[in-house]
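Changelog-adjacent note: as of this version, every example in the card shows the full chain rather than a window. The one below runs 341 residues end to end.
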Amino acid sequence: DFGDGTPMQTTPSPLTKHAYERPGMYPVRVTAVDKHGQEADATVSQRVITMDPTRRNDKEPLGPPVAYLEGRPKTTVPQHAVTFDASQSHDCDRQPCVSFLWDFGDGTPNVTTKQPVTQHPYAKIGHYNTTVTVTDKHGQNASASVRQRVSPDMPYKGGKNVTPGTTPAYASLTQKQNPTHSFQNVAPPDKTLPARTGLTQRHLPPYAGVRSSPTNAKPQQNVLFDASESQDYTGDPPVEYQWHFGDGTPSVKTNKPTVEHAYAQPGSYPVSVTVVDKYGQPCSASLTQRVQDPLNPKIGPPYAALQSQPKQTKPMELVDFDASQSHDYEHKPCVKFVWEF
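Full-length structure tokens:
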């Protein structure tokens, strides 16, 4: 079962290929049948994406752009041009925005530019809320604002220590009663951070895989379950593993990809692991663990295991599914494989 609604396939070989038409996460199942006609199942989750350099899945809706704005200098005087810079704005693909609408907050007409940097002088002292609305190539918008200060500072002409050819100090008309703060070459900037808005993060789900050793255990023998091939979409290991051993014992959570478990009774146990990546997203994989009593051997069900390569693929790209680790209770290869994609 390839998980995409296509008809199930039956093969005598443990290897098969399948291509997916659309992006998505598909639960793939193989049923291994041994020479005695007994069955066992294993599953993996196959991720199919259309990937761009920013790892955005085209099946997901487009996110809004990010708007960023900074004014320099943060404090100015009337008729002195202020440089407003929105060059760090970008769309959901981290590409530059294509249009910038400027509202300077002083009643002057709005200005639209294709460049992310513009200049504007203010005629009067005051505090002005300056806003830029960015538009990306998808026609989506986001806005950011800064508060621009225009002060009444004037060049101070009465000082005796002004060297000819140098820039005179500035004195605030409202601060002359406090000589400690009367003179400074640059007016103190407002302690505000550049505006930033519209930021969204998109993360694809992780990949989960699990195997066990030994595949045909004895009662009270520790079985090593290994999910180390699991990974998130950036290739990093998951941060949590939730284990269900299929024998009624409590589930176990670990921060490592391996765990050991012993079964008290012979039987065939459905084991599953749910991995959780650093973004809090889960994904599961399963296998069938066999436990056989060596003093009372019986024909038991087979062991089924399934892997896929590559773990992440694109639409119409073939995926190799491998159930060759499946075997019957005598460790002989299974004779039939029913694939459900």
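Structural remarks: Residues 111 and 221 are 75 Å apart (CA to CA).
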